[in-house]
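Hey, quick one: can you model this chain's 3D structure?
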Amino acid sequence: MENSNITSNVIIPKENPIADSRIKKAELLPHPDSRLDTMLLKVHPLSDPEIPFRDLTNLETKKESIAELIQKLDVTHNTRYQRTIEDTYCNVYSFDYCYFCKVYLPTVWWTEEALQKVLEGQEVEAVFGETVDNIYSSAIHDWFLTWGASFGWKRMTSLDELQDKVNTEGGVGIICAKRKQVGLSGHIVPVVPETKAKKAYRENGVVKYPLQSQAGIKNYTYFAKARKDWWNHERYSSHVFYYHE
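Sure thing. Here's the predicted structure for all 245 residues.
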């Protein structure tokens, strides 16, 4: 989801693998009107005590609670994630998934002026439209390269390894692609743990298409082969794979 002027001058930032202790989360508080059954206030975390957080007790509780989370978010049916004529909401679904997995992924980010103040050590309150604004999937691609390491994200190069870590550690995987044309929507998708019924697609025992869950033009609770290697589509200028414990 993007709403900038369309150009083709795409810049890919250089990866910064070193955490910057000066940076802080840009995050709004949960709001009672941010719910699964409405399109309102998507920039706020969901306010619903029935949505389970990832249980970090052990591997099994992590994977079981993630499966429960995916079922509760119910991306194929809940109003919050349904496409409109103008927009799709891959970034909102990915934010919600990460939020309840207790991992930071922005749905808003600091304005340039506010970011400078944060980096100077000033206390800055996240106020939508003043100090923070929407961040969409193409910009999140760049955010991962610039700030991902500062929030515990590790860049991956192998989808087989990414799926394995998600399966064997119960962590969070992300695929994020940046659009060639500035102003058009990129895409972002969580890579999720395999279940008894839902599997990644493998060839010769190696993951070719990981198990994913997405909002987008079409919403999928789980998919692997259905969209093949969507991140390699010619509409995208770049893609990244990331993992968080």
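One thing worth noting: Residues 59-73 form the longest helix (15 residues).
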